[in-house]
Specification:
The protein has 263 residues and is α/β, with parallel strands linked by helices. The protein has one domain: Rossmann fold (3-Layer(aba) Sandwich), CATH 3.40.50.1820. The chain is built from eight helices and eight strands, in the order βββαβααβαβααβαβα. It has an eight-stranded mixed β-sheet, sandwiched between helices. α4 links the parallel β5 and β6. It starts with 5 loop residues before the first strand and ends in a 5-residue tail after the last helix.
């Protein structure tokens, strides 16, 4: 896994995490999901590299390469809930770790140049791409099954884990710069309720492209009602499958926004 990647520490504001780097081309920040950089997350990173991008994959929690399992998932979820870097119930405030991620995006852009960088968050980190979008060099934000704040109660189900001030910047970039946000979810995913995408559509209008994959009972593709991770664990790598089409759209979105002349 992560063949050809190198690893070094990145420090900003007194916070340090390892960052795995691979590939060449426009920069894309991949923010892994709970419980960590599983083999499926690593495979996704390899796909982004193969599509012609320079990937930065920070290791924020978990053990790189450790397979997904219920005890491991629960352990890392508990650690995230008590960590000072994540505010899992905050409706109108980003998690503190987004400041470190913004610095990493800035460093990536300064190193690689070009029109900007892409960013994809998944599950616990899913909404973080919105927080990163307050900086002008983040040009291709993707929210895959954004799960914060944890959807406890009606307000949190529709909330974006983003301050009003940051949301105003995102709206302005969509309105004045033609920026776009891509979102992915399964329709039956309780961690990423439909109300959250409704909020994104209301706030961003045509600047939000939402892909919602049917996981209801008896759906045409036999997708389990428990499906959650669109481009990693629950990806079915078959032509015509909606998860494969979602993956292809993510790669196409990065190409359109980061190297438009070649898309």
């Amino acid at each position: 896994m992560l063949n050809g990647f190198t690893t070094s520490d990145f420090t900003a504001d007194g916070v340090t995490h390892p960052v795995h780097r691979g590939g060449a081309g426009p920069g894309v920040l991949i923010m892994h999901e709970i419980p960590g950089i599983t083999p499926q997350v690593a495979e996704f990173a390899d796909r982004v590299v193969a599509a012609g991008f320079s990937v930065a994959l920070p290791e924020m929690f978990g053990t790189k390469g450790k397979p997904l399992g219920v005890p491991y998932l629960a352990e890392q979820m508990i650690r995230a809930c008590i960590s000072r870097e994540f505010h899992v119930l905050a409706s109108r405030q980003s998690s503190p770790i987004t400041s470190w991620l913004r610095a990493l995006c800035r460093s990536l852009h300064e190193e690689l140049g070009g029109s900007g960088v892409g960013a994809i968050g998944m599950c616990l980190t899913g909404n973080f791409a919105l927080s990163l979008m307050v900086d002008p060099w983040v040009m291709a934000p993707v929210l895959s099954q954004p799960s914060l704040p944890f959807p406890i109660g009606a307000e949190r189900r529709r909330s974006l884990h983003l301050s009003e001030a940051d949301l105003a910047v995102v709206r302005r970039r969509v309105r004045d710069e033609g920026q776009c946000v891509l979102g992915l979810r399964f329709t039956g995913d309780p961690m990423c309720p439909g109300e959250r995408f409704e909020t994104l559509r209301r706030e961003l209008g045509s600047g939000f492209e939402g892909i919602e994959i049917d996981s209801s009972k008896g759906n045409a593709h036999g997708i389990a009602g428990s499906a959650h991770s669109v481009v990693t664990t629950d990806l079915v790598d078959q032509a015509g499958h909606p998860t494969r089409e979602a993956l292809d759209r993510v790669l196409g979105f990065f190409a359109e926004r980061l190297r438009p002349a070649a898309s």
